[in-house]
Amino acid sequence: MVKLCCIGAGYVGGPTMAVIALKCPSIEVAVVDISIPRISAWNSEQLPIYEPGLDDVVKQCRGKNLFFSTNVEKHVAEADIVFVSVNTPTKSQGLGAGKAADLTYWESAARMIADVSKSAKIVVEKSTVPVKTAEAIEKILTHNSKSINFQILSNPEFLAEGTAIQDLFNPDRVLIGGRETPEGLKAIQALKEVYQHWVPEERIICSNLWSAELSKLAANAFLAQRISSVNAMSALCEATGADVSQVSHAVGKDTRIGPKFLNASVGFGGSCFQKDILNLVYICECNGLPEVANYWKQVIKINDYQKARFVNRVVSSMFNTVSGKKIGILGFAFKKDTGDTRETPAIDVCRGLLVDKAQLSIYDPQVSQDQIQKDITMVKFDWEHPVLLKPVSPTALKQVDFVWDAYEASKDAHGICILTEWDEFKTLDFQRIYDNMQKPAFVFDGRNVVDPNKLREIGFIVYSIGKPLDQWLKDLPAVA
Ligand code: UDX
Ligand code: UDX
Ligand code: ADP
Known about the structure:
Elements: E1 2-7, H1 13-23, E2 27-32, H2 36-42, H3 54-61, E3 66-69, H4 72-78, E4 81-84, H5 104-116, E5 121-125, H6 133-143, E6 150-154, H7 164-169, E7 174-178, H8 182-195, E8 204-208, H9 209-240, H10 244-252, H11 273-286, H12 290-317, E9 326-330, H13 345-355, E10 359-363, H14 369-377, E11 400-402, H15 406-410, E12 415-418, H16 430-435, E13 442-445, H17 452-458, E14 461-464, H18 471-474
Bound molecules: uridine-5'-diphosphate-xylopyranose (2 copies) and adenosine-5'-diphosphate.
The site of adenosine-5'-diphosphate has 21 residues, from helix 5.
EC number: 1.1.1.22
Protein name: UDP-glucose 6-dehydrogenase
GO molecular function: UDP-glucose 6-dehydrogenase activity
């Protein structure tokens, strides 16, 4: 029986290994992590991450050929293939701070693999790491290995949160990068055989190590660029009276462009886009390509601009002050169907409103109060960011209230901000919400989930990203 081990039981490692276990009953899969609470949760009824369909997959294989454990060294020692899926956050200090990936966790995982291995292994890079990390890891492994043969592969993960199980069941492609030596090709083949249990061969792409690593950064940069492009267009639509949904529909009909990832929003979030672009920027700068670095940086700058613009719309609409006013925040996660809040635009919007002394009442169906408190007060590295990202002092949490119901969040509020496109927000009883709000009652829809005209009929003043403005907003001085 082939044995797989995955170091890191997070958003990537957990679902990916669960699906491999489900699709490959002949393979034994161990997912290991240094975090005891995380592993206990994986072994409980309440999995540590919310992902539609995941519970089902885990229940079918856990205890059969899927195991979650904190006994990292034992499982690594026994495995034929070791996936490394540890976190690679952006460095917060030292060389490359704010841009380069922090490889501390990766390096310690690699050293541990070298330490405990007694037989040849294929080591698979699964987390997003900058180009040439595999080479660094290879060096660590070969210099510490007591002549054990290690083959390094890069197998970037393209799953998106909220649709992880679907994406894993039916991936657009699986990418495997490796050395172009006989041993390297053999390792690529071994991993390919794992995926071939369910992925059609033509969707499994093989390349050299560096191409695989760079493809992951490039794919995320291209996706984020589409959102920044449509968001930049949304500002122009608001200024001119065009409707961004109509524009993106028309643009997306061109088969060379395609319809996906053209939804204007309050900004993209998530653990990958910003981090990967910052990585790309850093790599370009290190390679003496400042023009290319600046080109990609602009994608993040537009994202920051979009969040700042949203806050400005809220404050300027409400007579230029939200001080002491209750504002209901509907949605905090970075997208629907996940409880993940990493880089969610809601953090920056809430901070911007708190700085202006608003009273926030936050509701998200999957995010805990504890998480939101941590996010709002967290000190982030100030990457050439505008004012919004200034940390908010813990005392500002007095201005924040957490509720488990959208109606409660909007009760007596002057305005509501929709920051995540949860399906349940589409079917709220807005008449009931309106009746319980202060007047004039404002809705700021950062995800274009409501029909602005229907809400206007009820009496709301509505701002939707990139849509024609209400007279109320038109009469205000232009926002920058
Ligand atoms: C373009 C639009 O495609 C068309 O829809 C619009 O109506 C008019 O402008 P055109 O300028 O005729 O059409 O040619 P197009 O095929 O778009 O190519 C434009 C330029 O981009 C060419 O110089 C082409 O060589 C270049 N190109 C195109 C690339 O360098 N790489 C590509 O992948 C595609
Ligand atoms: C992304 C990539 O899609 C995935 O392939 C990669 O492996 C990891 O990074 P993820 O961050 O989970 O996945 O979510 P994604 O669906 O890409 O959304 C990212 C952000 O963009 C979200 O905040 C989302 O709301 C926003 N978005 C997405 C838009 O604002 N408009 C769109 O049209 C699409
Ligand atoms: P991702 O979104 O990339 O999956 P997460 O932060 O969700 O990232 O998961 C990464 C996991 O890796 C965390 O649960 C963390 O505890 C784990 N981890 C980090 N370093 C090590 C290590 N050296 N050994 C085992 N697990 C590790």
